[in-house]
Every structure is written in C-alpha cells, then in structure tokens.
Amino acid sequence: MKETVTYLEMRARERFTPADPVPGLALEPLDRNSPLVVELQVRIGTPHGWRCASRTAQEWTAWFAEHPDRVFWLLSFDGEPAGLVAYDLHPDDEVEIETFGLVPEFIGRRLGGYALTLGIRRAWDLTPTVKRVWLHTSSVDHPHALPNYHRRGFRTFRTEQGERA
C-alpha cells in the first residue's frame, strides 16, 4: 500500500491556534505502567494499520524498555477513556507528539480539534524551554488528522513517499 508520511512542526507557541473548548474533554497524566497505555494505542491504531496494533506482549515489553522517557497522557470524555497523547522529549528542547488519537467510538463526535489543543498545550508545558513541537502523520491515518494539525498551527516541513510494509 502506498503511503505518504507528513512531518509537521510548530517552532513558536504563538503559532498555536486552539480549537473551541469541548465540555467534558480532559487531558490527565497516565502512568506508563497502566494497561490503558497499550490498550489505547492498539484501539487507536488498529483502524489505521499502526504497527503497535499487532505487537505481542514481549514486543511491548521491549518497546517500553527502548523508550524509558516516553510520557503518556489520557484523553478522557466525561470520565471515559477517549484517546491518548504520548510525548518524547528530545535534545535541544524539542517535544515530539509521538502518538495522538481517539479510540474509534469517540471519532465523529467533534472532539479531535479540542483534543489536539489539549495535547499541544501540554507539549509546550512539558519543559520550561521548549523550542519546537513536532509530529508526523500518515496518509493512512484518519483523513481529518492532517487538516486538524494545520488548523492548530503546525506547518509541514517534510514529506516522504513509500510503501507501507
């Protein structure tokens, strides 16, 4: 399957354009050892063919060992788990939004813009000297993902064409 991966960045907090608030939608810290971390990544990624959706328990254990600094935040709607945001803190004061998404039953409820707003705010607040927030998305992700990133203030800095394995 052909795939386009788009890399996006926000180099100044002033570029950020928040979406209107959605009552009941919240972002809260999630312990990396919570079973929700794996469950949500699988539920979010399965419809889009994310590699994490088919990892075995052993592969997850190895993945967590390889990513000890990854930080997880739960998106909840009216107290129910609705999605996940995961961050990687990189050298030179960069924050990568490594995972962002909603579980299928919360898609189509007009939550994505504000969910991303909460995720971006948190990214800028993870360290006192963040200079750049960035992420990537794929053409096989939800069709609203790329437009949502652009509406929030991200700018494309690179694209790659290829075949998805």
Structural overview:
25% of the residues lie in helices and 35% in strands. With 165 residues, the chain is of the alpha+beta class. It has one domain: Aminopeptidase. Strands 2-3-4-5-6-1-7 form a seven-stranded mixed sheet, with helices on both faces. A hairpin with a 2-residue loop joins β3 and β4 (80-90). The radius of gyration is 15 Å and the shape is globular.
Q: Count of helices?
A: 4
| Major beta sheet, strand line-up | 2-3-4-5-6-1-7
Average predicted local confidence, pLDDT: 95
SSE order: EEHHEEEHEHE
General shape? globular
| CATH-assigned fold name | Aminopeptidase
Helix/sheet category: alpha+beta
The CATH superfamily is Gcn5-related N-acetyltransferase (GNAT)
Radius of gyration: 15 Å
Number of domains: 1
Any guess at the CATH architecture?
A: 3-Layer(aba) Sandwich
Strand content: 35-45%
CATH class label: Alpha Beta
DSSP strand count: 7
**Alpha carbon gap, first and last residue:** 8 Å
Please mark out the parts with pLDDT under 50 across 5 or more consecutive residues, or reply none.
none
* Main beta-sheet strand count, sense and barrel state: 7 strands, mixed
Report the helical percentage: 25-40%
Domain N-acetyltransferase: 25-165
Protein name: GNAT family N-acetyltransferase
InterPro entries: Acyl_CoA_acyltransferase, GNAT_dom
Pfam family, one: Acetyltransf_1
